[in-house]
Amino acid sequence: MKFSDGNWMMLPGVRAHYAAEVYEAEVRDGGLDLLVPTRKIRHRGDTLEGPVLTIRLSSPMPDVIRVQATHYIGESKKGPAFELEAQSGFSPEVFVEDEEVRLTSGAASVVWRRLEGDISFESDTQAFAGSPARGLGLMQVEGQGSFMMGQVSLGV
Question: Is 121 a member of any domain?
Answer without folding.
Answer: yes
